[in-house]
């Protein structure tokens, strides 16, 4: 549960386990969701560099070899979006993070599809060759693709302070995990994307971001090393 000491009270879900790697945006999305709902679960750190996500135990839970992996009794979920919505629907009654009305819920679902279908794949395409290969740069196309997603997000924020409306929802948590990480690779230009830049500042002030995102974001930055530059042909 992030920096659990920062929370005075929490609901402990002793029957739930989260396998995660803090530098992963997907894992941090689940961790932020847990902290935003004031929930704590058993957390197991997985060292991706040592391929601990490929052990027989982990493969029995998730043959796709991805993180996070979440288990609640006999239920096993291996997608961060599914985990976040499950936690909000199962253990959070307020409806603030995941609206109960069909319209509000569909907006959150729409944002999650954008993250899983466009935003996260562009992060993966840019970061994985640096994290797990010998690449030291982003090329011009990768930078352009990332900035195109910034433009999309900028448009989504027209007339709003938060993606879900008047307050932070799972939409903001999911986007915060991806955008804060992409921001390390391609900084969000406050002049090109003033609404997105302002949102990123606001969400970075939220307690769940401080307790559950900052540590892993620092680990990601350290792992990346020097900031990538445009590769010259």
UniProtKB/TrEMBL annotation:
<dbReference type="Pfam" id="PF02798">
    <property type="entry name" value="GST_N"/>
</dbReference>
<dbReference type="GO" id="GO:0004364">
    <property type="term" value="F:glutathione transferase activity"/>
</dbReference>
<dbReference type="GO" id="GO:0006749">
    <property type="term" value="P:glutathione metabolic process"/>
</dbReference>
<dbReference type="InterPro" id="IPR036249">
    <property type="entry name" value="Thioredoxin-like_sf"/>
</dbReference>
<protein>
    <submittedName>
        <fullName>Uncharacterized protein</fullName>
    </submittedName>
</protein>
<feature type="domain" description="GST C-terminal">
    <location>
        <begin position="101"/>
        <end position="224"/>
    </location>
</feature>
<dbReference type="InterPro" id="IPR040079">
    <property type="entry name" value="Glutathione_S-Trfase"/>
</dbReference>
<feature type="domain" description="GST N-terminal">
    <location>
        <begin position="14"/>
        <end position="95"/>
    </location>
</feature>
<dbReference type="InterPro" id="IPR036282">
    <property type="entry name" value="Glutathione-S-Trfase_C_sf"/>
</dbReference>
<dbReference type="InterPro" id="IPR010987">
    <property type="entry name" value="Glutathione-S-Trfase_C-like"/>
</dbReference>
<dbReference type="InterPro" id="IPR004045">
    <property type="entry name" value="Glutathione_S-Trfase_N"/>
</dbReference>
């Amino acid at each position: 549960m992030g920096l659990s000491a920062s929370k005075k009270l929490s609901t402990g879900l002793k029957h739930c386990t989260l396998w995660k790697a803090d530098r992963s945006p997907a894992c941090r999305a689940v961790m932020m969701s847990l902290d935003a709902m004031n929930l704590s679960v058993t957390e197991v750190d997985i060292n991706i560099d040592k391929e601990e996500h490929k052990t027989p135990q982990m493969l029995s839970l998730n043959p796709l070899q991805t993180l996070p992996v979440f288990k609640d009794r006999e239920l096993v979920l291996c997608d961060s979006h599914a985990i976040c919505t499950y936690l909000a629907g199962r253990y959070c009654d307020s409806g603030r993070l995941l609206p109960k009305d069909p319209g509000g819920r569909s907006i959150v679902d729409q944002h999650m599809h954008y993250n899983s279908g466009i935003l996260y794949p562009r992060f993966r395409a840019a970061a994985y060759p640096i994290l797990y290969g010998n690449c030291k740069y982003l090329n011009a196309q990768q930078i352009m693709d990332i900035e195109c997603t910034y433009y999309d997000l900028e448009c989504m924020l027209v007339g709003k302070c938060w993606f879900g409306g008047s307050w932070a929802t799972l939409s903001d948590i999911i986007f915060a995990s991806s955008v804060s990480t992409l921001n390390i690779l391609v900084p969000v230009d406050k002049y090109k994307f003033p609404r997105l830049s302002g949102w990123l500042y606001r969400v970075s002030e939220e307690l769940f971001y401080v307790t559950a995102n900052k540590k892993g974001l620092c680990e990601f930055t350290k792992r990346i090393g020097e900031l990538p530059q445009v590769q010259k042909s």
